[in-house]
């Protein structure tokens, strides 16, 4: 569609929704339609600041709509206010972006449920099941596929626990589960709230970083390796944990970086308990 057609569509939708905006999910920019000629204003604020956040939303609806190319909906909570958002992928003069349609949930809307608290708990439980790995508390593979894969990132690391099969075979699956939880705990202690830890599968984990220099990235991975090495499991004091890590650094889509990081992880595993970077 043309910019003018986008403006006309937004005007029509404003009779139904409280707010209509266009979002470039990759760089978190938002644009508000202004005039009949199809002029748009680029907001000085990032799209996530609408929800009083300092960083990208952990369940960005625009990223999901962009990656799946399907209409996507979610609820967003700001204090005691609840908003319902619908996102659609649109193309404006050859460029893909996401149109978000936002409505605030009023008290009248809540008549179909027991109450606001029950409603919030239900949505929170749904989001947890959708994106969180139950055993470790890390994000799950679904989160990567829908929220991270199509974004540009500066650094990605693939990590797995050395000799994990031997741990399960020798000490049993409870020890293996404890090892997974312990490694995740150590990693979370060493990364920023803006970084993402994903359980990619089995004992393999993915770390995604934005806005981090190469030297800082290398130091971060070495710190994680050392933290895990120094850790112990109280119920299995004789079990020595270690991880192998492959790290890829430079700005490009996460999917490309993951492939490179995975190749470097394979190299690191030949010696174990080490970091390999490009």
In short, what is this structure?
This protein is of the alpha+beta class and 278 residues long. Helices cover 36% and strands 28% of the residues.
Write a structural description.
There is one protein chain. This protein has 278 residues and is an alpha+beta fold. The model has no long low-confidence stretch (mean pLDDT 86). The protein has eight helices and eleven strands. The longest helix is centred in the middle third of the chain and has 18 residues, at 173-190. The strands form two sheets. The chain has a six-stranded antiparallel β-sheet. A five-stranded mixed β-sheet has the order 8-9-7-10-11, sandwiched between helices. It starts with a helix and ends with a strand. The chain is 36% helix and 28% strand. Helix 6 packs antiparallel against helix 7.
- How many strands appear in the DSSP assignment? 11
Strand order of the largest sheet: 3-2-1-6-5-4
N- to C-terminal distance: 42 Å
**Coarse structural class:** alpha+beta
* SSE ordering: HEEEHEEEHHEHHEEHEHE
Radius of gyration over C-alpha positions, nearest whole angstrom: 22 Å
Shape, per Cα inertia axes? elongated
Strand content: 25-35%
Q: Number of helical segments?
A: 8
> What is the assembly state of the chains in this entry?
single chain
- The average pLDDT value, as a whole number, equals 86
Helix coverage percent? 25-40%
Largest sheet: 6 strands, antiparallel
